[in-house]
Amino acid sequence: MASLKVPATVPSPSEDAEQLRKAFEGWGTNEGLIISILGHRSAAQRRAIRQAYRQSYNEELLKALDGEISGDFERAVLLWTLDPAERDAWLANEAVRKWRPENRVLIEIACARSSGELFAVRQAYHARFKRSLEEDVAAHTTGDFRKLLVPLVSAYRYEGEEINLTLAKSEARMLHEKISDKAYNHEELIRILTTRSKAQLIKTFNHYNDEFGKPVNKDLKSDPKDDFLAALRATIRCICCPERYFEKVIRLAINGLGTDENALTRVITIRAEVDLKVIAEVYQKRNSMPLERAIKGDTSGDYEAMLLALLGQEA
Amino acid sequence: MASLKVPATVPSPSEDAEQLRKAFEGWGTNEGLIISILGHRSAAQRRAIRQAYRQSYNEELLKALDGEISGDFERAVLLWTLDPAERDAWLANEAVRKWRPENRVLIEIACARSSGELFAVRQAYHARFKRSLEEDVAAHTTGDFRKLLVPLVSAYRYEGEEINLTLAKSEARMLHEKISDKAYNHEELIRILTTRSKAQLIKTFNHYNDEFGKPVNKDLKSDPKDDFLAALRATIRCICCPERYFEKVIRLAINGLGTDENALTRVITIRAEVDLKVIAEVYQKRNSMPLERAIKGDTSGDYEAMLLALLGQEA
Prior knowledge:
By secondary structure, chain A is mostly helical. Chain A folds into four domains: 13-69, Annexin (Annexin V, domain 1); 84-154, Orthogonal Bundle (Annexin V, domain 1), CATH 1.10.220; 165-240, Orthogonal Bundle (Annexin V, domain 1); 243-310, Annexin (Annexin V, domain 1, Orthogonal Bundle), CATH 1.10.220.10. Chain A has helices at residues 13-24, 31-38, 43-57, 61-68, 71-81, 84-97, 105-111, 115-129, 133-140, 143-154, 165-180, 187-195, 198-212, 216-219, 227-240, 242-255, 261-271, 276-287, 291-298, 301-310. The first copy, chain A, starts with 12 loop residues before the first helix and ends in a 5-residue tail after the last helix. Chain A binds chain B through residues 119, 122-123, 126, 130-135, 138-139, 146, 150-151, 154-160, 162, 187, 191, 194-197, and chain B through 119, 122-123, 126, 130-135, 138-139, 146, 150-151, 154-160, 162, 187, 191, 194-197. Chains A, B: One of its GO terms (cellular component) is plasma membrane. Chains A, B: Ca(2+) 1 binds at residues 24, 26, 28, 68, 254, 258, 299, 304.
């Protein structure tokens, strides 16, 4: 369930655009006005506001915002204002350009979206970057990560409910065999994770747990830490339980040494219209503290206000 | 340019459906009537006829055809009657189920279609086979072929005209290095062929020719024959010059020991609404004989008549 709250009646896109223009005018910027508008509009409404702004002022709203606000607040507002597919394309490009093995953004985009949404990201990537997503991923990553990430971002998984039980059993055994041999980069293991439907994979993982007495992700833990194993675990968690995966990203972002604002902003903006309400419930159960209070404790100012708006605070 | 000839005025879809029903009735089948209708209708018109047939007779037209006709004629009519994306999905599934290293169908579908057309094939594959295309390709192929075919069928190549000249030069050198080392299955070689845009690849191949004095495909020739090298050459030809590639498929289908009807039917049905007129011109230049005459010499009966209709013979 989405956390975003949109008022029952909203002004027209051109009225919203006009108010935003006012927020930019004069001495200083009216950040509260920006939040009260953009923080309470759906993707379709934000798109209409951008269009109205362009028509009225012959300028891109995102560009105007870029000139007015800064820091974590700016990043939150810009990411949020983008269309979901554009936002993912932008985040994927950033992840590719600055690629590091511990980066999970490409895995999230490939696995915690529907097949149609991932394809929309690939279309948005063409439009914005004049290259394909898989082309950039393949050119900027190497080794085992490339073997995993290129098919992940290129997948168009089947989304029906049909499950092949025999296949689930044989592939659970195959996964167990490769994992027992520590052949984590084996092409059959990667084939299974990158091509099977989510429903089929969940069946396979359940069978793994039943037959071998441990969840597959437990068998993929390692000591010392290994980024590729962590990437495999993230893949599996984004497929099986995106809410719990994202709860953990938020938890680590808040509990770490200093706040990881980029991770916090990413999850809040990406999931506010999807399932942030569920993620917040999981967070509260796991941490005995409302997510809202945790965010208040770790952030401040306009950035805090923007995150709280997306979390569902009334305008 | 398409070869298909559609009359200036065509009957309504339900009139066409009624005529087809008549062709199936009574003693024997009126094959000529089937050809005169289906062999002269566009994809959109055939789709409307199938719909009208279903509404009028509560039966699938393809199923009715299946009961009435047989052999090469049946295969030609059924493949032709399908929508392009459905046809490709059907051919891809057949190629996957009976996969052999010399099979080129998956390469053709991946490389001699636009990015949007390939994606439509993947959607049609979901709808018809309840699995994803890349999932089946990955599960049924092995070794180097899997390394090539899975990214090929999963690609969504950028289609703009932008070219990076520096990249074309460096990747031409990289291709030359791998080919000189006989590292034909090297992941960089496969990355380049499977992810770069067609415009970029054509520039890269041109640069290869300029710098190393030979077309890349000449350097990929081998003696004795090697199916994987042939697959790489087919990939390159489908990207650079699909008309010449398909002319060669037709030529080999006709000139071989006995006619390869499946290959002939495939190319004629797939390209009749795309560029079969150009392919026929290339054929005539290369073989000093009109394609029409070559087909007349190698086929007979209703099958011959159907192919000639798709080649542009008037109804």
